[in-house]
Amino acid sequence: MSDVWLVVGLGNPGEKYAGHRHNIGYLVVDELARRLGSPFRAHKTGRAEVVEGRVGPTGLDAPRIVLARPRSYMNEVGGPVKALASFYKVAPDRVVAIHDELDIAFGTLRVKLGGGDNGHNGLKSMRSSFGTGDFYRVRAGIGRPPGRQEVADFVLSNYSSTERKELPFQVDSAADAVETLVTEGLERTQQQFNS
Predict the structure, then answer these.
(1) 84 is in which domain, residue-wise?
(2) Per-residue pLDDT band at 60 (split at 50, 70, 90)
(3) Whole-angstrom Cα distance, residue 38 to residue 140?
(4) Residue 189 and residue 134: Cα distance in Å, rounded?
């Protein structure tokens, strides 16, 4: 297996979904790509867009990462992610999935290795394709739906105007957490970001 990290932003492709809570993963990999100074390009597998680069200290010892935006809907994301992992020879424990999390308040983050899918269709699809849940998760809190709103309607709706003001800080913090994870490890990242 290679020393590459595969960092996957979970979301739904297309303009229609761009501002939805479910697409926080896309926003975070977009920010990481901006930091690397590279645009996304179609990958040979045809099922994702990628950016390749290095993070952390400059030089050849800086970790190599592949940022990915799958071109499939959330519930089918496992196939494209597994194809990329096979292409780059990345084991599940070098995969980082960035996703929205209902059970964490908006504006907060949690980073962990492994676990269930907690009803999240993207994680469910990845677990199914890899045959394991032993990959890293950067979980960006979106909170629970207000009142009696259905969960599916909530995650597929835009952030409130108040949340949109705070969103850049959450995206920035999640991007920092990914960089810390691949350069300094899980324990250090959890100490710093698990608010």
Answers:
(1) 5-193
(2) low
(3) 24
(4) 17
More confident of the two residues 80 and 57: 80
* Choice among 22, 43, 99, 120 that is catalytic: 22
Residues 120-140 have pLDDT tens digits of 999 999 999 999 999 999 999
CATH number where 19 lies: 3.40.50.1470
Each residue of 68-121: pLDDT tens digit? 999 999 999 999 999 999 999 999 999 999 999 999 999 999 999 999 988 899
CA atoms in the 13 A half-sphere facing the CB of 84: 33
Which 3 state secondary structure label does DSSP give 67? strand
Tokens 């930091």 -> residue: 35
Compute φ and ψ for 105, nearest 5 degrees: -60, 145
Token representation of residue 161: 């105007």
How deeply is 87 buried, as exposed, middle or buried, from its count of CB atoms within 10 A (0-12, 13-18, 19+)? middle
Whether 98 contacts 77, CB under 8 Å: no
Residues facing 80 on adjacent strands: none
20 tagged catalytic:
no
Cα gap 126→79, rounded to integer Å = 7
C-alpha 23/C-alpha 12 separation (Å) is 6
Backbone angles phi, psi at 145, to 5 degrees: -65, 145
As for how many domains the chain has, the answer is 1
